[in-house]
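Design job #97: recover the sequence.
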């Protein structure tokens, strides 16, 4: 894998309109549209799809983009071998190979969609690029084409669930980007009743860290992925594996930290019985009356309540406690019931003290909530 990715001779590519003629093209900085042409460039040498600035990846490497809560894309440099090592693992775990129909929903500027597409072509699968379709038509295409394996984020799955439509014949759904909440997991089971759902916990910088499946305890993000070592230091998650990135490109120093071959992206968690449980990002942690609180834990809980379609938990100044938390929600739930459920689950200090319902939900291109835009919309910035 010194010179880059290699396409399997039996691989085929389909876009929103159907099968496309496909041959590896030159690498370099590639436009994301049309998707099939951009994907072809991924098999022709060092490349990046989208983004600004001079390509800094060398031979046998490439750049991909990541976008967190700030919304500013970071350029990640990694070796092709760091992804190819997990292609072999997933071929065995999920049966990906010639003739298997794989689909990705997202734009190839995002690492999950790019990974799923490149993996599929490397292993000889039929790869269906559905990013040009709106969610209801994505769902229809998955049904009509008999897609067997889907790579998707929770945000993409939620949009298809909300769009309605045909029951899907999926055999497996591989979910990355964030954790499925209980409500979305139940809705996914109705949309694709035969699908085995696996959630990957990871990051663009680390690739796969853990893998969960039907046997995992509720709330866990799974066991360490094959070849991954996990260490916890004061609750901070450190990872060592063959799948780690090389560094950031451009002027952004990034948020990941290296130490003696171990990598941290600033997430906190705990291990119990061999399973990893996430608490949240250190950068979002707030202190309420001397208690550390991770908004992500509360958001996941709120998303499982009746009538709650979107949730964000944000800190507000408090003269007595330093800060208190409020919940910004989209949906049609009952405020009193939400507040009572929060107090019962987290206690009076950690639970949101107020609920604000909004009709529009700002999202980043990655599908994550745009927290800064949400705060501006509330008049808090």
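Job complete. Output follows.
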């Amino acid at each position: 894998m010194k010179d880059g990715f290699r396409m399997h001779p039996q691989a085929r590519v389909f876009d929103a309109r159907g099968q496309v003629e496909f041959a590896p093209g030159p690498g370099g900085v590639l436009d994301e549209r049309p998707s099939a042409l951009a994907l072809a460039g991924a098999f022709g040498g060092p490349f990046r799809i989208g983004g600004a600035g001079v390509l800094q990846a060398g031979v046998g490497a490439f750049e991909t983009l990541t976008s967190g809560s700030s919304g500013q894309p970071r350029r990640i440099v990694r070796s092709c071998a760091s992804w190819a090592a997990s292609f072999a693992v997933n071929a065995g775990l999920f049966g990906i190979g010639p003739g298997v129909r794989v689909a990705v929903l997202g734009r190839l500027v995002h690492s999950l969609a790019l990974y799923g597409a490149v993996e599929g072509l490397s292993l000889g699968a039929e790869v269906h690029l559905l990013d040009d379709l709106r969610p209801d038509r994505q769902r229809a295409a998955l049904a009509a084409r008999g897609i067997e394996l889907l790579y998707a984020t929770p945000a993409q799955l939620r949009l298809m669930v909300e769009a309605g439509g045909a029951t899907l014949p999926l055999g497996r759904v591989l979910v990355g980007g964030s954790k499925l909440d209980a409500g979305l997991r139940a809705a996914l089971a109705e949309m694709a009743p035969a699908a085995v759902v696996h959630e990957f916990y990871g990051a663009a910088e680390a690739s796969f860290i853990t893998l969960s499946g039907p046997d995992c305890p509720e709330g866990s993000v799974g066991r360490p992925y094959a070849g991954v070592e996990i260490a916890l230091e004061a609750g901070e998650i450190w990872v060592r594996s063959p799948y780690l990135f090389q560094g950031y490109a451009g002027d952004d120093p990034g948020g990941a930290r290296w130490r003696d071959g171990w990598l941290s992206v600033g997430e906190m968690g705990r291990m119990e019985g061999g399973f990893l449980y996430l608490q949240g990002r250190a950068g979002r942690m707030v202190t309420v009356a001397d208690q550390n609180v991770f908004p992500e834990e509360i958001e996941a809980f709120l998303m499982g309540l009746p009538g709650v379609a979107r949730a964000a938990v944000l800190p507000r100044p408090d003269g007595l406690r330093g800060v208190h938390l409020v919940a910004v929600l989209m949906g049609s739930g009952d405020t009193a019931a939400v507040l009572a459920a929060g107090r019962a689950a987290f206690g009076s200090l950690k639970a949101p003290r107020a609920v604000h319902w909004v009709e529009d939900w700002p999202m980043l291109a990655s599908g994550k909530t745009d927290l800064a835009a949400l705060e501006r919309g509330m008049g808090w910035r």
